[in-house]
From TrEMBL:
UniProt domain ABC transporter: residue ranges: 5-256
InterPro entries found in the cross-reference section: AAA+_ATPase (IPR003593), ABC_transp_ATP-bind (IPR050319), ABC_transporter-like_ATP-bd (IPR003439), ABC_transporter-like_CS (IPR017871), Oligopep_ABC_C (IPR013563), P-loop_NTPase (IPR027417)
Cell compartment(s), UniProt: Cell inner membrane
Family (UniProt): Belongs to the ABC transporter superfamily.
Domain of life: Bacteria
The protein's name: Dipeptide ABC transporter ATP-binding protein
Bilayer topology: Peripheral membrane protein
Alphabetic keyword roster: ATP-binding, Nucleotide-binding, Transport
UniProt xrefs under CDD domains: ABC_NikE_OppD_transporters (cd03257)
Amino acid sequence: MTALLEAEGIAKHYPVRQGLIRAKTIGTVRAVDGVSFSVRKGETLALVGESGCGKSTTARLVLRLIEPSAGHVRFEGVDITTLDRAALRAFRRRAQIVFQDPYASLNPRLTVAETLREPLEVHGIGDGRSRKARVEELLSLVGLAPYHAARYGHEFSGGQRQRIGIARALAAGPDLVVCDEPVSALDVSIQAQVVNLLRDLQRRLGLAYLFIAHDLAVVKHVADRVAVMYLGRIVEVAEKNELFRNPRHPYTRALLAAIPHPDPTRRGRIVPLGGDLPSPLNPPSGCRFRTRCPFAQEICAKEDPPLEDGVACHFRDELPPAGLDFSGGLAPNAARRLALFAEAGRRQGTL
Ligand code: ADP
Ligand code: MG
């Protein structure tokens, strides 16, 4: 089956200039640096990683809100990086975005009805009467009432504003919605409601989501598959349950370790992650994660590990099992595993 959305080696590099007159380029921010993934019809691919790792830039690239420095994005097999204006408009009808900040993303001068009518007008969908009916339908879809149509954005709570943002994204009847941290700006008590709404809408409308989050706990509720991003790259991609059960990349393990586990005996058994995210202006040589990786060896500074078999790590088949649980017995390359494990432990001061 062909994917609904396919990103292949996409990159976004921003030149850094110094001086106002005759500015010189002194470096390049590698916000996204060679990312490939696909989203199937009706599924949710979650994209997770720390703040600054390139998630929003990826979101903008796949919707061609910004132009890529390299790579291709295909929607139903058609390369959207070369579409003309008319074709791009047709694509936008099918692929929409919900932004993180429901305060900033709504125009304060428009009523809800005007906000929701806008995409219908832009895409020439329906006439005055049918648009009015569609606005009411959209409000009901996202759990708002018909009388909300006449109100302005500032009259709503954060959760309600995000419902309006979702209704606007759905107005033209998309197949794909990119959700860029849609609940991160909301109160924790509201987050679950909006996540549940998104899941419900997915079931009813057959939507595919590229769901961006920095919080794995949220991802656990929404994702079918998960792609983990680090410093402009994807380091691991797996089916959700598989990823939570058996995280393979050291970075994925560290992210999972940051979620409090309900079973205290299982807490803290995954090697925690230290240090800060390095700058995408000057990423480490070789594997970008090596400066924070407890398992890093010489080769990691020299060679950039490709994403193979879902994991970008030179030692993906040799690391100790996730959770440092040896109860299942030792694998044939146990000596090497133990050496890695011991060294990691020494470095972390846990052995
Ligand atoms: P995330 O959404 O994961 O927090 P972003 O995609 O917003 O990350 O940003 C990734 C990196 O690219 C960050 O270091 C950010 O500062 C940088 N960046 C984003 N947009 C620009 C831009 N227009 N110019 C220069 N650097 C940018
Ligand atoms: Mg972001």
